[in-house]
Amino acid sequence: MNTSENIESRRSIKHYDPEHVMPEADLQELLRLTKLAPSSFNMQNYRILVVRNPELRQQLREVAWDQAQVTDASVLFILCADLKAHQADPSDYWGHAPQAVQDILGPMIKPFYDGKDQLIRDEAMRSSALAGMTLMLAARDLGYDSCPMVGFDPDAVSKLINLPDGYALSFMLPVGKKAEEAWDRGARLADDKVVSYDRF
Amino acid sequence: MNTSENIESRRSIKHYDPEHVMPEADLQELLRLTKLAPSSFNMQNYRILVVRNPELRQQLREVAWDQAQVTDASVLFILCADLKAHQADPSDYWGHAPQAVQDILGPMIKPFYDGKDQLIRDEAMRSSALAGMTLMLAARDLGYDSCPMVGFDPDAVSKLINLPDGYALSFMLPVGKKAEEAWDRGARLADDKVVSYDRF
Question: Choosing among B1, B2, B6, B35, which should be mutated to test the A contact, i.e. which has the most A CBs within 10 A?
C-alpha cells in the first residue's frame, strides 16, 4: 500500500474478528519491519511483547477498561522500553560499523544518558512510539488494522506480564482483522494551533 | 512508495543538498499527513516547529554538535509537545463526534492525566514520536529523506526557539534532498533480545 494512502486511511479500529489467527509468517514480517524503526545511537531501547495466550488476554482486558480489542485482535502487542539500554556494551549497537565510527560513537552513549533519568525515559517513550507507528503502518500493508491504547491500569498490566525492573510500559497495540469500521475520524486542530514557524 | 519498501529503505541521512528549497505545497502536504498520526484521546499534544530561517538554523547547528543536516536540509522540523493539552476544553478534540461519544470521552480526559506528571510527559513524548515517524515516512513518499536527532543542547535550543512554558522539546527532524548515502545500517539486535512472548 502506498505510504500516503496508508497514513490517510489508517484508523484506530476497536472491533476485530476474534476467530482470525495471524499466520506466523505475518507476525515475523511485522516484527522485522518494526525493528527497522530508528532509535538514538541505534540503542533499540524498545521491547516488544507479543501476547497471544487467550487467558492472559482476558486478564489484560479486565484491567484495560474491558475494551474488546484486547482479546479480539489477532495479536496484542505491548510496547515497552528498556531504561538501561545505554549501559550495555556499545558494540552491541555499533559492532557492524567501521572501527573509526565505533571509536567515536561508542564512548558517547553512556555519558550522554548517565544520571539523566528524564532523558532516558523520554528516549524510551520516543523509541517505543517510533517502533509502534512503524508497526501500525506495516500492519496495514499486510492487511491488518490496529488500535494504540493507553487506557489500562499500568500496575496491573506490569504484574500480569512480569515487566522486569528497568523496563517501562509504553502502550498496547492490538493488531488484527477489522470487524467494524471506526468512528468518524477525530477532527484535527487548526494548523495555527499545532504548527509554528521559526520560533514560538 | 509502498509502505514496506519505505520502512525498509528509510535511513537517517546526514548530508543534504543545501541549495534545495522545499516547495510550499510539499511542506503543507507533509504537515497534513503528519497531523493524521494518532494521539491519546485525540489530544494532538505534539507541536511542530518548522524552521527555515538561515541565521536561526546556523545558531541551532552550533548547539547541535555542528551537525551539517541542521543547516543543510531543506526544512528543519523540531518536534515538541504540549504538556497542558489535557486541560483544554474536550470539545476541542471531540467536537466532531456524536454527543453520546462526547459525553463519555470528554469528562475522562482531565482526570486521566491530572496530577500524573510522568504520564503526561510520557504521552507527550509518544505523541511527538508517532507524529515524527509519520513525517519521516511521508517525507520519503514525497521524495525526501530525514534524520531524527537528539544530539543537541536542549536548554540552548529551547532558548533559541522561544519554547513556551508548558511545552517540552522532543527531537529534531531535518528533512531534505539527500546529497550522500547513509552509513551502513545499524545492526539490529537479535529477536530474543527485543521480542518476548506472552510474558517477560
Answer: B6
All 3 cell numbers of residue B159?
A: 532558548
Residue B194 touches partner A, C-beta closer than 8 Å: yes
User: What residues in B contact A49, CB-CB < 8 Å?
Assistant: 195-200
Spell out the SS3 assignment of A162-181: CCCCCEEEEEEEEEECECCC
The pTM score is: 0.98
Number of neighbours of residue B137 by Cβ within 10 angstroms: 24
Interface check for B88 against chain A (CB to CB < 8 A): the answer is no
Encode pLDDT of B90-122 as tens digits: 888 988 888 888 888 888 999 999 999 999 999
Element (H, E) at A122: helix A117-141
Q: What single letter denotes the amino acid at residue B97? A: A
- Please, what are the domains in chain A? 3-194 (3.40.109.10)
Confidence tier at A29 by pLDDT (50, 70, 90): very high
The answer to whether the CB atoms of A133 and B128 lie below 8 A apart is no
Taking chain B, what is the end-to-end CA distance rounded to the nearest angstrom? 36
Note whether A125 and B162 are within 8 A (CB): no
Q: Which of A2, A37, A46 sits opposite B1 (nearest CB)?
A: A2
B-chain CB neighbours of A128 within 8 Å are 126, 129
Tell me what the mean pLDDT of segment B162-172 comes to: 98
Over the stretch A115-166, which tens digit does the pLDDT of each residue have? 999 999 999 999 999 999 999 999 999 999 999 999 999 999 999 999 999 9
Q: In this predicted complex, what is the ipTM?
A: 0.98
Tell me if A127 and B129 make a contact (CB, 8 A cut-off).
yes
Give the CA diameter of chain B: 54
SS3 B46: strand
Strand partners, A149: A172
